[in-house]
Specification:
The chain is α/β, with parallel strands linked by helices. Helices cover 37% and strands 18% of the residues.
């Protein structure tokens, strides 16, 4: 099986470095262009299905990728972005100023961070890896696309490399970028960064 792991296109909140979490923010013009470029790149493939987060920025990207092809788009709630709780809508600078101690834990020891509201990283890891397990159980000759979010995709890569969730920040992924994961049976055998968005 070949999995194309894609981060959604850009939104105006991405551009302002504002945490979106589970807030439904649509793609901006740059994000739509990124999604169209992805569509052009992937059009030559025979894709079994596109699995997307239910959040608008991801589902818009998925639908744009599919635009002229009959590939089924499957919405999977396990692919939704982490819920940032009370940090949603804030910029990194605002969080550093208003929640400096919590932000230091989030940055340097994310596995120990327990938000007062929102979702712990371990919970996001559990649900996102369920998706990977389900997909790897399919026919290994298939090509599947996953459209999700920065934190979710980074956690999936932690899982693939057998790394703890504390390494989540080792896998930054810009908007519209693609990782290609190839499996040998139910194990990922290779990972390639195809583009940086």
């Amino acid at each position: 099986m070949t999995l194309y792991l894609i981060r959604h296109g850009e939104t105006h909140w991405n551009r302002k470095h504002r945490l979106q979490g589970i807030r439904d923010v649509p793609l901006n013009c740059a994000g739509l262009r990124q999604a169209r470029r992805l569509s052009e790149r992937l059009r030559r493939l025979t894709i079994r299905s596109i699995h997307t987060s239910p959040l608008l920025r991801a589902s818009q990207t998925a639908l744009e990728i599919r635009s002229t092809e009959p590939w089924p788009v499957i919405v999977d709630d396990d692919l939704r972005e982490i819920d940032h709780g009370s940090w949603t809508g804030m910029t990194i600078a605002e969080i550093e100023k208003q929640h400096s101690e919590e932000q230091l834990v989030w940055r340097w020891n994310p596995e120990k961070f327990r938000p007062r509201t929102g979702e712990p990283l371990a919970m996001v890891y559990r649900r996102s890896t369920r998706v990977l397990c389900r997909l790897l159980a399919l026919d290994e000759s298939q090509t599947v696309v996953i459209v999700s979010h920065g934190v979710v995709n980074a956690l999936l890569l932690c899982s693939v490399f057998g790394l703890p969730i504390a390494k989540v920040w080792d896998f930054p992924q810009s908007n519209g970028s693609v990782y290609v994961l190839r499996s040998n049976g139910r194990e990922i055998s290779s990972v390639e960064c195809l583009s940086h968005g």
